[in-house]
Amino acid sequence: MGAGRRFAREAAPLTLLSLVLLAAFGAVVPASVRTVPEYAALYLVFVAVVTLPHVVVVTAMDYAEGVWRGVGGADTAL
To answer: Is the pLDDT of residue 28 over 70?
Structure first.
Protein backbone atom coordinates (compact mmCIF):
# COMPACT_ATOMS: atom_id res chain seq x y z
CA MET A 1 0.00 0.00 0.00
CA GLY A 2 1.34 3.43 -0.92
CA ALA A 3 2.33 5.94 1.69
CA GLY A 4 -0.46 8.29 0.62
CA ARG A 5 -3.13 5.64 0.95
CA ARG A 6 -1.78 4.52 4.31
CA PHE A 7 -1.76 8.11 5.55
CA ALA A 8 -5.35 8.63 4.34
CA ARG A 9 -6.48 5.42 6.06
CA GLU A 10 -4.80 6.41 9.33
CA ALA A 11 -5.99 10.03 9.21
CA ALA A 12 -9.59 9.29 8.23
CA PRO A 13 -10.98 8.46 11.72
CA LEU A 14 -9.66 11.64 13.36
CA THR A 15 -10.64 13.73 10.34
CA LEU A 16 -14.20 12.40 10.53
CA LEU A 17 -14.27 13.00 14.27
CA SER A 18 -13.14 16.59 13.72
CA LEU A 19 -15.87 17.14 11.16
CA VAL A 20 -18.47 15.73 13.54
CA LEU A 21 -17.15 18.02 16.29
CA LEU A 22 -17.30 20.99 13.91
CA ALA A 23 -20.94 20.23 13.12
CA ALA A 24 -21.74 19.86 16.83
CA PHE A 25 -19.85 23.06 17.60
CA GLY A 26 -21.86 24.89 14.94
CA ALA A 27 -25.08 23.55 16.43
CA VAL A 28 -24.35 24.94 19.91
CA VAL A 29 -23.35 28.43 18.77
CA PRO A 30 -25.99 30.71 20.26
CA ALA A 31 -26.26 33.04 17.24
CA SER A 32 -27.01 31.92 13.72
CA VAL A 33 -24.07 32.06 11.33
CA ARG A 34 -24.98 33.65 8.00
CA THR A 35 -22.01 35.35 6.36
CA VAL A 36 -18.63 34.13 5.16
CA PRO A 37 -16.73 36.10 7.83
CA GLU A 38 -18.94 34.56 10.51
CA TYR A 39 -18.22 31.06 9.16
CA ALA A 40 -14.51 31.88 9.06
CA ALA A 41 -14.60 33.09 12.66
CA LEU A 42 -16.45 29.97 13.76
CA TYR A 43 -13.90 27.80 11.94
CA LEU A 44 -10.95 29.59 13.54
CA VAL A 45 -12.43 29.15 17.02
CA PHE A 46 -12.99 25.49 16.22
CA VAL A 47 -9.38 25.05 15.09
CA ALA A 48 -8.15 26.68 18.29
CA VAL A 49 -10.29 24.33 20.39
CA VAL A 50 -9.18 21.24 18.46
CA THR A 51 -5.47 22.12 18.70
CA LEU A 52 -5.52 23.05 22.39
CA PRO A 53 -4.86 19.48 23.64
CA HIS A 54 -1.82 19.28 21.33
CA VAL A 55 -0.46 22.54 22.73
CA VAL A 56 -0.94 21.31 26.31
CA VAL A 57 0.74 17.94 25.66
CA VAL A 58 3.70 19.39 23.78
CA THR A 59 4.18 22.10 26.39
CA ALA A 60 4.22 19.47 29.15
CA MET A 61 6.71 17.37 27.18
CA ASP A 62 8.94 20.39 26.57
CA TYR A 63 8.79 21.30 30.25
CA ALA A 64 9.68 17.73 31.31
CA GLU A 65 12.70 17.74 28.98
CA GLY A 66 13.78 21.24 30.00
CA VAL A 67 13.60 22.51 26.43
CA TRP A 68 13.13 26.15 27.41
CA ARG A 69 15.60 26.18 30.30
CA GLY A 70 19.23 26.99 29.67
CA VAL A 71 18.77 28.10 26.07
CA GLY A 72 22.11 29.50 24.87
CA GLY A 73 23.67 28.98 28.28
CA ALA A 74 21.34 31.47 29.94
CA ASP A 75 18.51 30.62 32.32
CA THR A 76 15.92 32.54 30.31
CA ALA A 77 13.15 31.49 27.97
CA LEU A 78 13.03 32.58 24.35
So the answer is: yes
